[in-house]
Design a protein that fits this description.
Blueprint: E1 6-10, H1 18-30, E2 34-41, H2 54-86, E3 94-99, H3 102-111, E4 117-121, H4 134-141, E5 146-149, E6 160-164, H5 171-181, E7 188-195, H6 198-207, H7 209-217, E8 222-228, H8 235-246, E9 250-254, H9 258-264, H10 267-277, E10 280-284
Parallel strand pairs: 1-2, 1-4, 2-3, 4-5, 6-7, 6-9, 7-8, 9-10
Antiparallel strand pairs: 5-10
């Protein structure tokens, strides 16, 4: 069973983190997990001067990093106290500040068994879906479920989930993990496959693939939906339209499904799906 004991939430901008932290804490409370907040600064992002001055500049950078970390801790400590007063928790929220590459720091925690899931802030300017973003680096290299919270999203218990799929063998164990993770909510999961030919759509319906999925996952809450691509609608439009129609709370994808990801990792997808539907995204890694 996909048991989330500890969630690590990466803070991008401490001053704008209240909504994100509140979302994370409410989710953690519902799935009975602890929360660790993480603020990471990468010294490599600070340019240094000439070789003659580099020693002094290293000292100055280190001092600046300490000051920034101190200010972040002060800001976040205040937010934590406010949220804990609002949302009673079994375990207190803890704050950590570290130096390094965020993906490396988080993967280290996962490999040591200290992190079961990572929460990220979706960014409207350089979002989860942008290939060059820190979030995408984490998606590629941190081997645990990654939950990206769309900007300005208010938490609500999960009722409708879209699992975007190409109907691969790996979908069944991933759906099992999704069912286990979301068990406290008992949501309806729409396994959505967008096809480019009608023959495949008919074949899926004829073979009873939906019943096979329900049997192998042990869930009667999974609904199979196959939609054929249209010339006037791209994949982001189709997902966004379905999400709006069923009032979806979350989109789930499998990282190893490269074909599907190649079709949706576009900045236009960010604008249409994240900004308009304000959907959060959960990415599973294949086990």
């Amino acid at each position: 069973m996909e048991k989330m004991k500890t969630i690590w939430a990466l803070i991008n901008e401490p001053g704008n983190a209240m909504e994100f932290i509140r979302y994370t804490v409410r989710l953690a409370k519902d799935i009975h997990a602890g929360v660790q907040l993480l603020y990471v600064q990468n010294p490599a992002a600070f340019p240094l001067g000439t070789p003659d001055s580099i020693g002094d500049e290293v000292v100055e950078v280190q001092q600046n990093l300490l000051e920034i970390a101190g200010a972040a801790e002060k800001t976040l400590d205040k937010m934590i106290r406010e949220i804990e007063a609002e949302i009673p928790l079994d375990n207190p929220v803890e704050f950590h500040s570290e130096l390094g590459n965020a993906a490396s720091v988080l993967e280290d925690k996962v490999s040591k068994g200290a992190a079961d899931m990572v929460m990220l802030q979706g960014q409207s300017d350089e979002s989860f879906w942008a290939r060059t973003s820190t979030n995408m680096d984490i998606i590629r290299n941190v081997h645990c479920p990654i939950w990206v919270v769309a900007p300005h999203t208010e938490y609500r218990p999960l009722k409708q989930i879209i699992y975007a799929t190409d109907y691969q063998e790996e979908d069944i164990p991933t759906l099992k993990r999704l069912v286990a993770l979301t068990a406290p909510f008992s949501p309806e999961i729409t396994a959505l496959h967008i096809v480019d030919d009608k023959d495949f759509k008919d074949k899926v319906q004829e073979t009873g693939f939906d019943e096979i999925i329900r049997q192998k996952t042990g869930s009667d809450k999974i609904v199979m939906k196959t939609i054929q691509e249209k010339k006037d609608l791209d994949m982001p439009d189709i997902i966004n339209d379905l999400a709006a129609r069923i009032d979806a709370d979350l989109v789930v994808v499998l990282k190893e499904n490269r074909h599907f990801l190649e079709r949706i990792f576009k900045r236009s997808f960010t604008r249409k799906l994240i900004r308009q539907a304000k959907l959060s995204v959960l990415v599973f890694h294949e086990k």
